[in-house]
Design brief:
GO terms for molecular function: DNA-binding transcription factor activity, RNA polymerase II-specific; RNA polymerase II cis-regulatory region sequence-specific DNA binding. By secondary structure, this protein is mostly helical. The chain has 23 helices and no strands. The protein is elongated and about 55 Å long. The structure holds a DNA duplex.
Length: 511
DNA sequence: CTCGTGCCTG
DNA sequence: CAGGCACGAG
């Protein structure tokens, strides 16, 4: 709106005034949370092993070793992470950290085995319930449920009769979800540490960092899946199920969509630290993405999110497309060890390509908007040849254009009313030039760097749209329920052919 | 019930 | 821009 904002530096715009900056922080927060949780789990597993093999924590509980350890593994979770958890377990934790460095490899194997045991334990309940849980609105809560079940089954595994423990645990299990609650602040610190560890001093290295981070989030899970299968041919379904459930196109999406890179302020020159990344990728359990989210209230909801979620689950194995029944692929791939080979293959293949839309794709899409406001999904597929399309991706792209349109129409309506208010009577007087405010606003939105040849046809479209809106408003059509629909239809016919160079990847990378 | 769309929210 | 949601077609 205000042309003067164009003079602001991108950094100021995005980091200070742009609310998306907060989203970035939240995403990073979540990532940090996940990582911390993973590390914590490793520590926990370690403590389980050490306590069962060596009497290192004798007095902590008189019940049994198992009960003691399961208790340990729960407490840190409640407090969101171990950094804050300097209570009774301090001694034990120090010990654990030392041991962890020394016997990292050993740990992996053991914890994997341990994981299998865990899965065996919770197989029955979890399996049945999650399958039955086809109701979409519950999927959002699935993570929560998983955690709960995880907790309870761990307890059962240790000692079921510890009702007291459960009671103690519950109140803290309901932590606040506020993005910047005191509890989540440490994660910002944590992510900074991560960045420093990865020697991030420039946006370029930041990119690498994010990429590595993503790999660490992805590949280990699959490696785990494979390895475990090797170790235990009779892997219970629930294990893979858990893995699948927490699959993350979404997560990677976050990594890619975030232009955090652009806003990142390099920290002071960091002292070299141990390669931390390996530790991360060493974890050998299916971590849970318990990203706090608003819970659904409606029961009737069957919308995008749940559906997509289920799609993710079913599609990550067969990225390519729909046709196959989701439930089938899900079950067979997860619970059947005869599929070992297949599973590996799909896993590898899955790791091989990008199933994410990058910010580059976004810019490209915006530029395409100059030509077409209503691209069909088939058109999108043609003009994004480097993208591995699945329903998720398609939905996202479609959503992008939907958002583009929204902005487009909102601006035009705004200016339309403005012009009318300024006393314009004759619609023919509404002429859009490249210098028009409206045009500049739109151009700024879809073509920030101004490095594309905006087709003249776009100017025509803007003008036409403006006139349609003005006309409708003038006629007070805007009082009718869905008066914009008819305008939309008209504008939809004005779509142009998209130039072929949009298909060229090289060209795309040049923008 | 699934799926695609549009609105509107954060 | 992405999440959520209501609605309607199939």
């Amino acid at each position: 709106m205000n042309p003067s904002t164009a003079n602001f530096s991108p950094y100021l715009l995005s980091s200070v005034f742009n609310p998306r900056y907060h989203q970035h922080l939240n995403h990073l927060n979540d990532m940090a949370f996940t990582h911390t949780k993973m590390l914590q789990e490793i520590i926990d597993k370690r403590s389980i092993d050490s306590s069962s093999s060596a009497p290192s924590s004798p007095s902590s509980s008189s019940i049994s070793p198992m009960a003691a350890t399961s208790n340990d593994s729960i407490q840190p979770k409640k407090r969101t992470h171990a950094y804050l958890d300097n209570n009774n377990n301090e001694q034990q934790q120090q010990q654990q950290q030392q041991q962890r460095r020394q016997e990292k490899d050993d740990l992996i194997k053991r914890s994997k085995i341990k994981q299998e045991e865990d899965d065996d334990e919770e197989d029955n309940h979890l399996n049945k319930r999650s399958r039955k849980q086809s109701k979409p609105q519950q999927l959002a809560e699935k993570n929560q449920i998983d955690d709960d079940e995880q907790l309870s089954s761990e307890e059962e595994m240790g000692e079921v009769h510890s009702q007291d423990e459960k009671n103690n645990i519950f109140p803290i299990q309901q932590p606040p979800i506020l993005p910047f609650s005191p509890q989540s602040l440490p994660f910002l610190t944590y992510i900074q540490d991560l960045a420093r560890t990865h020697n991030i001093t420039s946006p370029a290295s930041m990119t690498r960092f994010l990429e590595n981070l993503q790999k660490e989030l992805f590949s280990p899970m699959h490696n785990v899946g494979i390895e475990v299968k090797r170790l235990a041919p009779s892997l219970p379904p629930v294990f893979s199920q858990t893995v699948h459930h927490h699959h993350h196109p979404y997560f990677s999406q976050i990594l890619y969509n975030n232009s955090f890179v652009n806003h990142y302020t390099p920290p002071p020159p960091p002292p070299p630290i141990l390669p931390f990344g390996n530790t991360l990728s060493d974890r050998s359990f299916p971590f849970r993405l318990s990203t706090p989210k608003k819970r659904r209230t409606k029961v009737t909801d069957t919308r995008l999110s749940p559906r997509i979620t289920s799609k993710i689950i079913s599609h990550e194995d067969l990225m390519d497309d729909d046709k196959s029944s989701s439930t089938h692929s899900f079950d067979s791939t997860t619970s059947n060890h005869n599929n070992n080979h297949h599973h590996q293959q799909s896993t590898i293949e899955y790791n091989a390509f990008q199933i994410t839309l990058t910010s580059l794709h976004l810019r490209k899409a915006k530029l395409m908007f100059f030509y077409t406001r209503y691209p069909s999904s088939s058109v999108l597929k043609v003009y994004f040849p480097d993208v591995r399309f699945n329903k998720l991706i398609t939905a996202q792209l479609v959503k992008w254009f939907s958002n583009f349109r929204e902005f487009f129409y909102i601006q035009i309506e705004k200016y339309s009313r403005q012009y009318l208010a300024e006393g314009i009577r004759n619609i023919e007087d509404l002429i859009i030039t490249t210098d028009s405010d409206l045009y500049r606003v739109l151009n700024l939105h879809y073509n920030r760097s101004n490095q594309i040849d905006v087709p003249i046809s776009f100017r025509d479209v803007v003008q036409s749209t403006l006139r349609e809106f003005s006309h409708a408003i003038q006629q007070q059509k805007d009082l009718e329920p869905s008066w914009k629909k008819s305008i939309y239809k008209i504008i939809q016919r004005l779509d142009d052919q998209i130039p072929d160079f949009f298909k060229d990847e090289h060209w795309m990378h040049s923008i």
